[in-house]
């Protein structure tokens, strides 16, 4: 089942935000995330807040777009009351779950509400995730006509036995079809991969890399499999039915992927993400790593505005009840202190290719930089200020593999 929501401070029924949320908002971009919590089947490794038809408890998918539209209207009013200045939306991301289990017209309607409530920046990035067997050419064309600009396909692997272990429902042969249809519709294409599945060999992983590159995508994500407590996969490992993931093999797989992606013309910009050009980076993904603002709609969705973070009730039934009652769907929230926001910035920006400005660090923290350079964990050139250039903490390949070590050394 999905993981448990964190505890926090009580969230007011009217959604009111503290005055601090508006401070500095002029200098931050604003995005919208829409969580669609439906899946045809539950993948054995997944602990996301998703539900199959038998788990919905009487709620209906047909009603979901309207519920989200009401939350978006509620959110726009909350931000206005808080004194947050009007900002057009720079990025939109529909995630899940499987957003494309809904009719394309529902996704279009929710996007239209975002446009109506806040407006979209010129050139706004609008993405949806999709399972390869949940769309066809007509569906993707409808999304493009509605204003979507990107689609991120959950490819995960090109090897049948790996897909079977992950409980994925598509076949490898589906990937070239859907990526071609997306490009024909005028959409940018991203493919998501997972490495380190129990039973997956290095040659299996290489086969998946080759298959992903053969689709000529604009963007690739590659995530190490994490065995989450309470999942089917965790139970299988506990019973000895499948082997535990091998951390050393994970590192080999990451190094292989980075080398192969680089040879194909891709550059990393966040530890698990590579793009063909700077213009095909996922700007929505980067907004999470750089502390921008976003409203997140849907069950279990997590929002952030100006250091205030809140999360919605988990179950679609509880979410629907709150929306129908006209009250905030938030379960709880937290307001980060200045020190907590700074430490979180260190944690996040040391994972991206643009790096962390060294002047964010305190004097005693900057003393760790020479040893990090000597240990090959951060880029020595980037860490030294030069004419017209700010010193930055940028991880090397080794530093990406040991990202937690870099943060621990800096923050002590």
Automatic annotation (TrEMBL):
Coiled coil: none annotated. Residues 1-20 are annotated as: Disordered. SMART domains: Elp3 (SM00729). CDD domains: Radical_SAM. Signal peptide: none annotated. Residues 24-267 form the Radical SAM core domain. It is found in: Cytoplasm. Its main location: cytoplasm. Pfam families: Radical_SAM. Keywords: 4Fe-4S, Chaperone, Cytoplasm, Heme, Iron, Iron-sulfur, Metal-binding, S-adenosyl-L-methionine. Gene3D superfamilies: Aldolase class I. InterPro entries: Aldolase_TIM, Coproporphyrinogen-III_oxidase, Elp3/MiaA/NifB-like_rSAM, HemW-like, rSAM, rSAM_sf. Probably acts as a heme chaperone, transferring heme to an unknown acceptor. Binds one molecule of heme per monomer, possibly covalently. Binds 1 [4Fe-4S] cluster. The cluster is coordinated with 3 cysteines and an exchangeable S-adenosyl-L-methionine. Belongs to the anaerobic coproporphyrinogen-III oxidase family. HemW subfamily. NCBIfam families: hemN_rel (TIGR00539). PANTHER family: COPROPORPHYRINIGEN III OXIDASE, RADICAL S-ADENOSYL METHIONINE DOMAIN-CONTAINING PROTEIN 1, MITOCHONDRIAL. This is Heme chaperone HemW. It comes from Leucobacter muris.
């Amino acid at each position: 089942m999905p993981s448990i929501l964190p505890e926090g401070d009580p969230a007011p029924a009217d959604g009111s935000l503290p005055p601090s949320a508006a401070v500095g908002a002029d200098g931050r971009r604003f995005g919208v995330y829409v969580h669609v919590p439906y899946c045809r089947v539950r993948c054995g490794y997944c602990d996301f807040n998703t539900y199959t038809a038998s788990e919905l408890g009487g709620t209906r998918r047909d009603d979901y777009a309207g519920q989200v539209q009401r939350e978006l209207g509620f959110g726009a009013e909350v931000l206005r009351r808080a004194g947050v200045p009007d900002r057009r939306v720079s990025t939109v991301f529909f995630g899940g779950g499987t957003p494309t289990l809904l009719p394309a017209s529902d996704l279009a309607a929710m996007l239209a509400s975002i446009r109506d409530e806040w407006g979209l920046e010129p050139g706004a990035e609008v993405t949806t995730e999709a399972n390869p067997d949940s769309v066809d050419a007509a569906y993707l064309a409808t999304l493009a006509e509605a204003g979507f600009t990107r689609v991120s396909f959950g490819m995960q692997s090109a090897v049948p036995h790996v897909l079977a272990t992950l409980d994925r429902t598509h076949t490898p042969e589906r990937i070239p079809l859907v990526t071609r249809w997306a490009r024909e519709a005028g959409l940018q294409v991203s493919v998501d991969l997972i490495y380190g599945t129990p039973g997956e060999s290095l040659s299996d992983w290489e086969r998946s890399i080759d298959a992903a590159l053969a689709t000529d995508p604009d963007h690739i994500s590659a995530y190490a499999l994490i065995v989450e407590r309470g999942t089917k996969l965790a139970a299988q490992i506990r019973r000895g039915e499948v082997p535990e993931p091998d951390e050393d093999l994970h590192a080999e797989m990451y190094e292989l992927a980075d080398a192969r992606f680089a040879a194909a013309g891709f550059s990393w910009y966040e530890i698990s993400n590579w793009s063909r050009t700077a213009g095909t980076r996922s700007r929505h993904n980067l907004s999470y790593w750089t502390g921008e603002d976003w409203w997140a709609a849907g069950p279990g969705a997590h929002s952030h505005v100006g250091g205030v973070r809140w999360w919605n009730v988990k179950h679609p039934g509880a979410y629907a009840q709150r929306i129908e009652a006209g009250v905030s769907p938030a379960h709880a929230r937290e307001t980060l202190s200045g020190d907590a926001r700074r430490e979180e910035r260190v944690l996040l920006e040391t994972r991206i290719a643009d790096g962390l400005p060294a002047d964010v660090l305190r004097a005693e923290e900057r003393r760790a930089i020479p040893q990090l350079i000597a240990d090959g964990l951060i880029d020595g050139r980037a860490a030294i200020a030069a004419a017209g250039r700010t010193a930055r903490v940028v991880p090397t390949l080794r530093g990406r593999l040991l990202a937690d070590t870099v943060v621990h050394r800096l923050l002590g």
